Amino acid sequence: MSRGGSMRGKGWGGVGAMAALIGVLALAVALLLPLAREHQAVEKVAETTQAAAETCKNPEQQTLRPSAADGPTIAEIKARTGAKRKLIVGVDQNSYRWGYRNPNNEDAVLEGFDIDLVHEIAGNILGDRDAVQFRAIPTNERINAIQKGEVDMVVRTMTINCTRIGQVAFSAPYFRTGQQVLAPKAAREITGFDKSLAGKKVCVAAGSIAQTALDANRQGATPLVVPNQLDCLVRLQLGEADAIITDGALAASQAAQDPTVELKGKAFTTEFYGVAMKLDANDLVSRVNQVLAQYRSGGWQASYTKWLSPTMGSDSAPYLPANPVYLRTS
């Protein structure tokens, strides 16, 4: 009996252990399966983004035709009630003459070239130019903010390129620019984006086109990567960087803020700013393009004259994109 009882005890112990093991395995599967699926989803997005970049030509033309029609995205925006009935827009609050808080204004409200465009879009969609909730977003968080639905759009000197059009949807271009070097006037040895940068510490914003350009051709320089473009100007002023690479339009504004720095050489790329939105927000993209088509006829020039002509000159022709082409169909 004792032997049989002992064997039964061992048998039940084995079954119990097996059951416990199965339970542990089931729990592991339950915990790991969502992670595996998430990983597969991330890989799929990465593959889609890479494919878009490899097959992309003229990314500024990969947008939808203008339309005044409402769709699900616009309907959702309009359905907001009370104080929340606003367009939520990611912007910069530190880019002089583009999106910044003017300390000379009583309320230090956001203003600038990009901010004018935001008000124009809000007026078209919600019938109130001031129905906007601005959210200050760092350079390296622009795409995340759109994909996570934290904002309806980003209007923040954001360059349209082949990688980004696989991550977010862009409007037609609203500004033409290019990458340039900004450095102290006293640094006469720096002549532009060339070998004169060898041995220099060059500051770029994380996730920016400038970072991509410098990674592709460092010109012998050492990159200094910071979260925000304005951080580069501060680093330059503190002597922690020798030069900055950024959009020429932004560089001109920064040079206006600090008379000890200047643009070095000519722009070495051609780029276009666009309004960025979620990939599936087709109705919103088309509506923004409708706004831009109307804005080109007068509002654009008035905003340029007010905000950018003091730093970029009275001739706006080099910065107004050609008539847009709408190649995207869905």
TrEMBL record:
CDD domains: PBP2_GluB (cd13690). The chain crosses the membrane at residues 12-36. The keyword Endoplasmic reticulum does not apply. InterPro entries: Bact_solute-bind_prot3, Solute-binding_3/MltF_N. GO terms for cellular component: extracellular region; outer membrane-bounded periplasmic space. Keywords: Membrane, Signal, Transmembrane, Transmembrane helix, Transport. Residues 86-311 form the Solute-binding protein family 3/N-terminal domain. It holds the Pfam family SBP_bac_3. One of its GO terms (biological process) is amino acid transport. PANTHER family: ABC TRANSPORTER GLUTAMINE-BINDING PROTEIN GLNH (PTHR30085:SF6), AMINO ACID ABC TRANSPORTER PERMEASE (PTHR30085). Belongs to the bacterial solute-binding protein 3 family. This is Glutamate ABC transporter substrate-binding protein. It comes from Streptomyces acidiscabies.
